[in-house]
Design a protein that fits this description.
With 139 residues, the chain is mainly α. It is built from eight helices and no strands.
Length: 139
Amino acid sequence: MNRAELQQLAEDRVLDAAALLAAGRWSGAYYLAGYAVECGLKACVLVRVEQTGIIFLDRKYSEKCWTHDLDALVTLADLEAERGTAIAANPVLAKSWVTLEGWTEASRYHQKTEPEARELFYAVNHTTNGVLPWIRSRW
């Protein structure tokens, strides 16, 4: 899978999450909103690979990329400092990242309520304070 495909997958999953929210399918909306962030961060990881050739500097790097852990993906994309600066400047974006900490790959197995789904979707997709718009500017 290449960067453009991961970008498109992120966009599709956030649209799917919105459709599920509109249909009252809270658990699916919650999971797909978080999955959109995972795909977006993996696109950012590929930016780093293209810019640095890190796969030739760290032979285990590609193995580390087989993760669903969002914080690990931020690290693999070398975005910790940028995220730190962004959340220091924008407390609402900081809250969005905190909200996202509740999402894991295993979220697909959990029932979620409407408030949980809406809160995560807002954290992911809000135009100025969402995690996915922040990611888009780096992918």
